[in-house]
Amino acid sequence: TNQSTPARRSLGSPRLPPQSLTRRYTGLQGAVPGVTGMGSGFTIVPAFYTSLEVTDLQQGAKYTFCVSSIKNDVVDQDSKCSVSDLGSFEKLDPPEDLRANEKVLGWSGTETSTYLVEWFPNEKGRAGNEVVTGTTYTLNVTAGTWNISVRTVTSESSSDPRLNATHISGLISSPKQSGSKVVEVVWWEVPTPQADSAYVVTLEDGEMPSPQYTKVCSGDSRKNDCSLLFTLNVDTSKVTDINVSIQRSTLLGSSYFKLEPIEEVNPALSVRSANEVVVEWQKVDNAKYYIVSLYQDASLSNMRWRKQQTLPLRVTVQEDNLMGNYMTIQACVDSLHCGDIYQTSIMHDTGG
Prior knowledge:
The chain is mostly beta strands. About 0% of the residues lie in helices and about 45% in strands.
């Protein structure tokens, strides 16, 4: 039986610990059309996942677990596989008293034992894992809330996890491409500050001098008032270092960002009636999906409808009183890189 799952490195053995494939994903499951030899089980998980838990396996059986990357809806045929023998599973005692003090983790156990440490972001951030010897570990993660799991492991087995959460103070910056040459930088603090502060945003791309911008805002992620828009030149070989600092402290939030070349969508609208419009467009190179939105007027402040569309390159909008409303469509490479927004009004004589 084959199960496709994100695998982590084993401990001196080509076989994976039978119980160490953690973090269940309940999204799209099932065989991928046109892909053969994938066995009886197949699961698709987001790229930021680093592990998966596979349950309801046959006791004592051998399983082959394979990992394949998926890009632009195409499955890479160069799978990485490993065999796991459930018959060699050894019951292990889990670590005890898992403690978290900001980035420093500690637990009770044997100093010579090996442990699998995993961390998952509560909101933004990148999950990860590492196998360590000893009973302490220091996380290298951004500010925010992180869920922690620690298991005792050997080359063949792993224990049940011990779970905890840690809250790491700091400043978080999150850039996003919202146009062909536009980057929006959003930032906030953890924990939320009690008063507004002056924040300094610096862009460094190897050119001198580096521009600086100052904005006074709350630092509260719920208010979403700490953001700036920047226009950058598209250079796929250049990475921009974006630093956000606070004038009242030494906190610094850093992130690296690269613009992607994304063409503008040029759609065609067909008005079927005052309550129905069909939007069609041609494929944009490298676009993974398109965001189609309906607004009350040209200010684009009152959204009536929105859809994220992959295929087909066509959507039908059915809403009351569409005449005079505005449609927008935007191509996106991923959640952090989207092109310019095409905007058009809905009129009786539009297309058809």
